[in-house]
Amino acid sequence: MSERVAFIGLGVMGFPMAGHLARAGHQVTVYNRTLARAEAWVARYGGRRAGSPAEASAGAAFVFTCVGDDDDVRAVTLRPGGALEGMGRGAILVDHTTASAVVAREVDAAAAGRGCGFLDAPVSGGQAGAENGQLTVMAGGAEEDFARVEPVIAAYAKRVARLGPAGSGQLTKMVNQICIAGLVEGLAEGLHFARAAGLDPLAVVEVIAKGAAQSWQMENRSGTMLRDEYDHGFAVEWMRKDLAIALAEARRNGARLPATALVDQLYGEVIAMGGRRWDTSSLLRRLEWSSGKVRA
Fold it and tell me: Does 123 share its domain with 240?
């Protein structure tokens, strides 16, 4: 069924996600802070460009946001001219930003006050997953709101799950990033060790990838790591933002994250090397630079 929807935030994730909604037959109105980006989207997919989040949201059954951080979420949803200002009763706001559970609960309360639904629904799968419509979406919010919006989200997702009330999606994404951080550092150390030991690291990976060490990171990043290629994928600065959110939440809930805190510090060293926009797998470059094998 065709729905009237709005999509706010057309970055490397939002641009293709909104495109999948248009291709699925939905009537899409977009808003982006940079006007040229919104115009490029309309030129490619059709639909309509709005001058503010409130204008984009007016009359929409579902409003999707995908922006940078907590402050950006508040700016496009809660502040004057934000999405909630334009939404009618019964509409549902879905935030795909990776942000804090705190801001998710703020927006949920504000949406409820206007008679609207809300889901915090961060995603995993990166730019490639967004472009291919193969994202994993982890959501928090009311069951009835999730049931209504799930068929629409399916336009760009291979897996959509509700984990609990508002904030649960963001908490689950924190678990996701905690797990990835440890995996990437472990893979970097393993490849670094293989080289130092005189092994052929590609041959090593081919063998161990068939056993218990197998991971998405090993399958999709070991080759580029060994070729010292990092101008792709999920940027280090974005990962540090996500880890900061997880570490802050851990301070609130009492969880102990020693490995996550260490990897966050190691990413700080990567940034000091000039790697702010390198892929997160650049932890191998940090190891080999520190051992004198490559230059920063």
Answer: no
Q: Going by DSSP bridges, is the β-strand pair 135-141/117-120 parallel, antiparallel, or unpaired?
A: antiparallel
Q: Domain for residue 73, yes or no?
A: yes
Q: What is the pLDDT along the chain (296 residues), one digit of tens a residue?
A: 899 999 999 999 999 999 999 999 999 999 999 999 999 999 999 999 999 999 999 999 999 999 999 999 999 999 999 999 999 999 999 999 999 999 999 999 999 999 999 999 999 999 999 999 999 999 999 999 999 999 999 999 999 999 999 999 999 999 999 999 999 999 999 999 999 999 999 999 999 999 999 999 999 999 999 999 999 989 999 999 999 999 999 999 999 999 999 999 999 999 999 999 999 999 999 999 887 765 54
Which residues share a beta bridge with 124?
136
Which of 116, 138, 164 is where one domain is finished?
164
Q: CA triplet 10, 106, 16: central angle to 5 degrees?
A: 15
What's the structural domain count of the chain?
2
Question: Which residue is catalytic, options 173, 210, 241, 293?
Answer: 173
In a shared domain, residues 155 and 177: no
Query: 51: domain range?
Result: 4-164
Tokens 């949920």, located at residue: 108
Residues 68 and 149 both lie in one domain:
yes
Q: Can you read off the two tokens belonging to residue 153? A: 């989200």
Give me the DSSP letters along 138-186.
EEEE-HHHHHHHHHHHTTSEEEEEEEESTTHHHHHHHHHHHHHHHHHHH
Domain boundary among 117, 138, 164: 164
Mapping DSSP to helix (H, G, I), strand (E, B) and coil, where does residue 242 land?
helix
Structure tokens at 222: 């070991």
The yes-or-no answer on residue 158 being catalytic is no
